[in-house]
Design a protein that fits this description.
The complex is a heterodimer. Chain A is mainly β. In chain A, about 0% of the residues lie in helices and about 55% in strands. In chain A, the strands form two sheets. In chain A, strands 2, 4, 5, 6, 9, 10 and 11 form a seven-stranded mixed sheet that branches. A four-stranded antiparallel sheet of chain A has the order 1-3-8-7, with no helix packed on it. Chain A is globular, with a radius of gyration of 13 Å. Chain B is an all-beta fold. In chain B, strand 5 and strand 6 form a beta hairpin. The chains are: A mainly beta, B mainly beta. The interface between A and B is medium-sized, with 18 and 20 residues.
């Protein structure tokens, strides 16, 4: 149980275009989902926290208008990178926390974004 | 704000031997959770072990155990009988115990190399 999927697993897009990444909790309902960014050989950096039905909370320094997050249902959150630039190329990971008392976050397999 | 520090960028261990990874954290809270996550080359984050701050007993999961020193704010991970499959990045993480708290704060990571 507690499986989180991400789609796509990798994507290449041209500079100036937008790309959407989906994060789904497959066998549980996720009240809260998290989006992380990971550069090569570095740790995970939290970008934002999203709660179902409400606006996402962004970490300091993360551009809200560039990284649009939508958590429309208890099983789906999306991250849209708008007007992508090469510096947005990175590995994006989502995680989800279920509605119960457990404190663990369950991580998706990640999405590698390359902007050319 | 809480910070998590992993002072060892890389550790090498012989197969079947034991390796200990260090983690220190800074917090003014008394109620919190600590985690060790493993990130193999696939980059899928895997929960290795969890420790509740209110528990004095050190957590153990098969070959993985922790040494939790609350007063010293230290949370080390011991991998016993190391296997080739243990080769990965290991991240220490902190989460507040507050009901509304969800965020994980990660350390910089330690790469574990296992020599056959």
């Amino acid at each position: 149980g507690a499986v989180v999927s991400q789609h796509p697993s990798w994507v290449i897009c041209k500079s100036g275009t937008s790309v959407k990444i989906e994060c789904r909790s497959l066998d549980f309902q996720a009240t809260t989902m998290f989006w992380y960014r990971q550069f090569p050989k570095q740790s995970l950096m939290l970008m934002a926290t999203s709660n179902e039905g409400s606006k996402a909370t962004y970490e300091q320094g993360v551009e809200k208008d560039k990284f649009l997050i939508n958590h429309a249902s208890l099983t789906l959150s999306t991250l849209t990178v708008t007007s992508a630039h090469p510096e947005d190329s990175s590995f994006y990971i989502c995680s989800a926390r279920d509605m119960g008392p457990r404190v663990e976050q369950y991580f998706g397999p990640g999405t590698r974004l390359t902007v050319t | 704000a809480q910070t998590v520090t992993q002072s060892q960028p890389e550790m090498s261990v012989q197969e079947a031997e034991t390796v200990t990874l260090s983690c220190t954290y800074d917090t003014s809270e008394s109620d919190y959770y600590l985690f060790w996550y493993k990130q193999p080359p696939s980059r899928q984050m895997i929960l290795v072990i969890r420790q509740e701050a209110y528990k004095q007993q050190n957590a153990t999961e098969n070959r993985f155990s922790v040494n939790f020193q609350k007063a010293a704010k230290s949370f080390s991970l011991k991998i016993s009988d190391s296997q080739l499959g243990d080769a990965a990045m290991y991240f220490c993480a902190y989460r507040t115990g507050k009901a509304a708290g969800n965020k994980l704060t990660f350390g910089g990571g330690t790469r574990v190399l296992v020599k056959p």
